[in-house]
Design brief:
Layout: H1 9-19, E1 29-35, E2 43-51, E3 57-61, E4 79-86, E5 89-90, E6 93-97, E7 100-104, E8 111-118, E9 128-129, E10 134-136, E11 144-145, E12 153-157, E13 165-167, E14 171-173, E15 176-182, H2 185-189, E16 193-196, E17 199-205, E18 208-215, H3 222-240, E19 247-255, E20 261-263, E21 267-273, H4 280-295, H5 322-339, H6 345-361, H7 370-375, H8 388-391, H9 397-413, H10 420-434, H11 441-452, H12 457-464, H13 472-476, E22 481-485, E23 493-494, E24 497-502, E25 505-511, H14 516-520, E26 527-531, E27 534-535, H15 539-543, E28 551-558, E29 561-568, E30 570-571, E31 577-581, H16 587-597
Parallel strand pairs: 1-12, 18-19, 19-21
Antiparallel strand pairs: 1-2, 2-8, 3-7, 3-11, 4-5, 4-8, 6-7, 9-10, 10-16, 12-15, 13-16, 14-15, 17-18, 20-21, 22-31, 23-30, 24-25, 25-26, 26-27, 26-28, 28-29
Helix pairs in contact: 3-4, 4-5, 5-9, 6-9, 9-11, 9-16, 10-11
């Protein structure tokens, strides 16, 4: 936690004594009551009570971001009607920062704070309330007293009419599911709460109790979910050697077009499409999402880059290692589902090829390194614009590829004795359990090299910190595979724009770096109206009749004014790899393949 500048020496001393040791101030008690008198209008009302105070003022803060989603979202923007009182009388308070309210507590040992929160953004990382249910992403609901992050608290939920269930990893008080307790704010902020009439599916996996809270309906099969999720969970537990929880909750929001997920210490939140469970592709995608977020139970929530905890909830928390935290988790989401035998090796190889194709076709992969992508997540990944693909690379996709390289190298060099699993278990035991802290970049590299039995300077220099294209053939060959580019023989022309059709208008939504459009000056937001004076309604159809080197005149409207641009079309430079087995693999290659893909 970065130190904070406090306004008075008294408070600095008080907060240091009460919380810097990592122990709560025993005389201070904190409780919340959350009600929903206007749920239909997307509001929660929060009453916060603090007793045992002995100081001149208290600063209450709202976090500006939520762990796992690396963007400052300014949750305080949704707070209104803030007031403070003591013994039934109002006491003075003022807002002193964008997310901080200062309350005059001189001569007041107990205070009551009331405020409203507007919640109408349904995502895995933000709160949402309507008449059907409430999803409380805790960082956007609960304020905390500055300097008292180690303080326990209780939360009492008063449900809206018709709401009968609460789903959360927080423990109930005296068996009351609507009254919850948290040992500190890191736990509270890592424990989302779903309230409503959700379908709760329960099962046990080797002594650990699991719940799936299904909100929004869907065509899922509860028994199939229990069987397949238990299979995934067992394979992930086997990697680390233990399940650190006694209870775990999947909160699933089923909507018409759901997606995304966010990990928490003993739960996760998933977005899913309610009608996709019956299709093979849709169900496979859901299982991969489950595998991804549940794998975070270890990787990120416990085994973590050193910068990701203790958290500074006021500011960005920078690390160059999100390619490990997220990229390795993306790698394991696919390989774990493959290990369950829930789909064949070819399906996994197709998913891997899709990652490779994304990275190779993204111009940004030659502009931004993987380490830079991790560090700049706060300002780039979660704030995409029309030029994003030209300047950034996803640490999910490329990080997954680096995990693949490490896995294949380790299996090959150890002749099947070790794999990346051994690295993850070693790092978990050494740093989370042994040292009770996160790892540095150098420490993680050393952990991988320990099991590879060799230096990995080359991979780090070229692919993590550098901009070289990955030598996929070299690493896939270790398992007896190679790449084939299905577009290698094409001589297609390309303009290099992405089109966003709007009421029949062909509006340019993106321009690819070094494409014909980039070089000859087509801009985002141009409306393409004609090519060689002929009105165009299907841009791809027209370009498909051309050859690389052809010169065309493209007519556009730019800010309402007509403009004619001479364009020299270039060759389409996209690749489309598929992964194929070598005709004659060696015994060593087959050994690597068998261990990597969990072949029977």
């Amino acid at each position: 936690m970065k130190s904070r500048i406090l306004a008075a020496i008294f408070c600095l001393i008080f907060y240091t004594m009460s919380s810097a040791s990592g122990k709560p101030a025993n005389n201070i008690k904190i409780s919340y009551t959350v009600t929903f008198p206007e749920a239909q209008a997307h509001y929660a009302e929060v009453e916060m009570n603090i007793t045992g105070l002995d100081q001149k003022f208290v600063d209450l803060k709202m976090p500006v971001w939520t762990p796992g989603s690396y963007l400052v979202r300014e949750f305080a923007k949704n707070v209104e009607s803030f007031s403070a009182g003591s013994a039934g009388k109002a006491i003075s308070s003022e807002k002193v920062r964008r997310n901080t309210w200062r309350i005059n507590t001189e001569n007041h040992s107990s205070i009551t704070v009331k405020y409203k929160v507007y919640a109408f953004e349904l995502s895995v990382r933000t709160s949402y309330i309507d008449a059907a249910h409430a999803f409380l992403s805790s960082t956007s609901i609960f304020m905390y007293p500055d300097g008292l992050l180690h303080q326990p608290s209780t939360v009492h939920i008063v449900p809206y009419k018709g709401w009968t269930k609460v789903s959360t990893s927080l423990e109930p008080v005296n068996g009351d599911p609507f009254t919850l307790q948290s040992p500190d704010y890191d736990i509270l902020f890592d424990s989302p709460i779903e309230i409503g009439t959700q379908d709760v599916i329960e099962f046990n996996v080797d002594g650990v109790h699991y719940q799936i809270a299904m909100s929004g309906g869907g065509n899922y099969d509860p028994e199939r979910l229990k069987t397949d999720l238990a299979n995934i969970i067992r394979h992930e537990v086997a990697i680390y050697g233990e399940n650190p929880n006694k209870r775990y909750v999947f909160i699933v929001h089923n909507t018409s077009r759901g997606g995304g997920g966010l990990e928490h210490l003993s739960s996760c939140v998933l977005g899913a499409s309610r009608d996709n469970y019956a299709s093979d592709k849709g169900y496979q995608g859901f299982l991969e999402l489950v595998a991804h977020e549940h794998f975070h139970l270890w990787n990120v929530k416990r085994l973590r880059p050193i910068a990701l905890g203790p958290f500074d909830y006021d500011n960005e928390n920078y690390t160059t290692n999100l390619w490990i935290a997220e990229g390795f988790t993306a790698y394991y989401q696919d390989i774990v589902v493959r290990r369950t035998q829930l789909y064949p090796p070819q399906t996994y190889l197709e998913a891997l090829a899709a990652d490779i194709n994304y990275v190779q076709n993204a111009p940004g992969s030659r502009v931004q390194s993987l380490a830079e992508a991790s560090f700049d997540a706060w300002i780039k990944l979660y704030r995409p614009n029309e030029n994003t693909n030209n300047v950034t690379i996803s640490y999910y996709n490329k990080g997954s590829i680096i995990a693949l390289l490490f896995d294949l190298e380790i299996i090959h060099e150890s002749k099947g004795k070790y794999s990346l699993d051994d690295v993850m278990r070693y790092m978990y035991e050494t740093y989370y359990k042994g040292k009770s802290r996160g790892y540095t970049d150098a420490e993680f590299k050393a952990g991988v090299e320990k099991f590879a039995g060799k230096s990995l300077d080359d991979i780090y220099a070229k692919y993590v910190n550098g901009l070289d294209d990955v030598d996929y053939e070299k690493y896939l060959n270790l398992a007896g595979y190679h790449l084939t580019d299905e577009l290698a023989g094409n001589n297609d022309a390309a303009l290099g724009v992405g089109i966003a059709s709007n009421n029949g208008k062909l509006l340019v939504g993106s321009v690819a770096r070094n494409s014909a459009a980039w070089i000859d000056g087509i801009n985002v937001n141009d409306e393409i109206t004609a090519i060689d004076s002929v009105k165009v309604t299907d841009l791809n159809a027209v370009i498909s009749t051309k050859k690389p080197g052809d010169k065309v005149i493209i007519s556009v409207l730019r800010d309402g004014l007509p403009l004619s641009l001479p364009i020299t079309l270039l060759k389409k430079n996209q690749i489309k790899y598929k992964i194929e087995a070598l005709d004659q693999a060696t015994a060593q290659q087959l050994l690597v393949r068998k261990k990597w893909l969990s072949l029977q």
